[in-house]
Amino acid sequence: MKFLGETLVQVSLLALLYVAGGSTAAWQPTLDCQTKCGNLTIEYPFGTSPGCYHDESFLITCNQTGTEQKPFLRKGNIEVINISLNGELRILMNSSRACYNKTGTLIDYQDHHIQLTHFALSIKNKITAVGCDSYVYLNNMGVRDSSTGCLSVCNSTPPNDGLCSGDGCCQTPIPIGTSYFAVKPYSFNNHTDVFQFNPCSYAFLVEDGSFNFSASKDLVNLRNTTRFPVVVDWSIGDRKCDQIDNNNSSCRENSICVNSTSGSGYTCECKKGFEGNPYLGCQDIDECSKDKHTCAKQEICHNNIGSFHCKKRQELSIIVLEKHFERNGGIMLRQLLSADSSNEIKIFIEEEIKIATNGYHESRMLGKGGQGIVYKGILSDNSEVAIKKSLPRIGDPSNAAHQQIGTQVAEFINEVIILSRITDTKVVKLIGCCLETEVPFLVYEFVSGGTLSDNLHGSKSGFFLQWKDRLRIATEIATTLASLHSAQVPIIHRDVKPTNILLDEELSVKVADFGASRIQLQNCLTTLEHHLRPKVTLRSSKFQLKLLAITTHVL
Q: Is the pLDDT reported for residue 376 higher than 70?
């Protein structure tokens, strides 16, 4: 094989210097920037076109390779596999090799010289050599030249114990701030003594923990692996935080400047209590709604901008809330939900519900039916929800039919359990519930188009549903019910009617109100069997669906 000789592969990852200026700091990316290239998510300060990146140092070139897109750093040949806003990116870097024939003649050689401008190798990488007659140097060339490396020697194939400690494989840390370097493999005796099982020396950089040495596979051809993941530290500019002022900083609202630990420049990070992209502006974290607070059970969490505080509840109030929780089926619900670790239902406290509905103000009321009142709510993160208040009041002494209380509790818990298990997008999504009030509340997604009844006969009667829309709506309802019936745990709605069908802005169906539903689950049936109407079958839903079709004038 023809000797290739030592090749110089000099790839400039970043060639342009950044000088911070007032006009540059005030600049923001355009709204139509490409955010994906293959599997890579691209966020500012990186971008794929002018107007989308901080400067050309942060250019990502998205190339079509066969049937897929691949991202490369600047206009070079180094593939990017991940970008992190904490000042790191992961790339794929080529390995170096030196291969010999049985007489010790070098027949294949390749090493790599890499130059990083404003970027530097992370100390999360290791310089690695694989071989039984091998050693590697990493020559760091810059303001101060230095070298580091390791050696690996063995006279037979080492055990497959995964260790890279000098027996067939060695690793060593790299110096901080390495930005211009060469990775070169060497041999003591040109592999003449180990040629039969190891003809080559391999050298490469790799992210710590991303390479597991296998002697039987790696000493022959390194498993045909030519590229390894490497972590690179990136930063903004060439000045430290104390050398720039706020007007010239790239750190936006609610973020702070942090000096780069591996070279010149700085990065930005969100202040404590905020999240998002610090180069575009960070947003407040609502610790109370995301369960990121440390408030005790006896305390109420109140969100502040950038923080939260805990307020103690009155002792008498706590007792009352706990009684409400138990009376409203909280213990039953907690037991059922604890059996499903994937369930993400949020348990709201009373104050959150009160704030979301503006004190249950009449202007927030969306409707009132036989099973409750529905309010429009606005949570602390400004998301819109629908909040259902059950009627009549559970445990109310004025309720003459005492046996009906158990039915109401069972139907409420039944709806929670059913909705928590449904993933069909045509079914209203349950977000959470509140059991601390005299009557329980369900919190679910807000569907803006109103009920089918509203669109046919009620407040939206001025808008005429065309026949094709009625047919499509009826079809979507039928398809959704069929999906529920054929699920692994079949669900029969039992109360299909226009007021229980919601429509979004596109007039797409959302089936709601599962309070009277029957879920075919043994542990639920044993608890709720005596509360459910007799002879509930799939024919019940078919009959209700026919009535609904007549109502919508499809039949």
A: yes
Cβ contact 256:121 at 8 Å: no
**Does some domain include residue 225?**
yes
Q: What is the pLDDT of residue 19?
A: 30
The whole-angstrom separation of Cα 195 and Cα 475 is: 72
Which of 266, 284, 302 terminates a domain? The answer is: 284
Query: Which residues make beta-bridge pairs with 229?
Result: 92
Residues 522 and 540 in one domain: yes
d(CA 353, CA 454): 26
Element containing residue 229 per DSSP (H, E): strand 227-234
* Same-domain pairing of 36 and 127: yes
Amino acid at 125: N
163 domain residue, yes or no: yes
Separation CA 256–CA 274 (nearest Å)? 11
Here the tokens at position 173 are 């840390």
User: 171 and 190: one domain?
Assistant: yes
**27 and 139 belong to one structural domain:** yes
Torsion of CA 277, 283, 284, 286, to 10 degrees: -90
- Using pLDDT thresholds of 50, 70 and 90, give the confidence band for residue 27: low
372 and 488 together in one domain: no
Out of 111, 284, 495, 513, the active site residue is 495
Give the closest residue to 108 by CA, choosing from 248, 219, 202: 202
Query: 527: part of which helix (H) or strand (E)?
Result: helix 522-528
CA gap 418, 424 in Å, rounded = 12
Indicate if 219 and 100 belong to the same structural domain: yes
pLDDT in tens, 263-276: 788 999 999 999 99
Please tell me the total count of domains within the chain.
3
Q: How many residues are there in the chain?
A: 555
Note whether 393 and 430 are same-domain residues.
yes
* Domain contains 261: yes
Angle at 143 between CA 141 and CA 144, to 5 degrees: 70
Q: Are residues 440 and 465 in the same domain?
A: no
Instruction: Look at residues 423, 445, 467 and tell me which one is the last residue of a structural domain.
Output: 445
Q: Which residue's entry shows tokens 């209590």?
A: 273
Whether 298 is covered by a domain: the verdict is no
Q: Which amino acid, one-letter code, is at 385?
A: V
Q: Which residue has the higher pLDDT, 425 or 13?
A: 425
Count how many Cα atoms sit within 13 Å of the Cα of residue 484 in the half-sphere of its side chain.
32
What is the three-class DSSP state of 260? coil
Cβ–Cβ < 8 Å for 522, 483? no
* Residue 520 belongs to domain spanning: 452-551
DSSP β-bridge partners for residue 183: 112, 138
Peptide bond before residue 534 is cis, with ω within 30 degrees of 0: no
**CATH no. for residue 389?**
3.30.200.20
Residue partners of 533: CB distance under 8 A and separation at least 6: 494, 516
pTM of the predicted protein model: 0.56
Nearest residue to 93 (alpha-carbon basis) of 127, 65, 143: 127
Q: Is 495 a catalytic residue?
A: yes
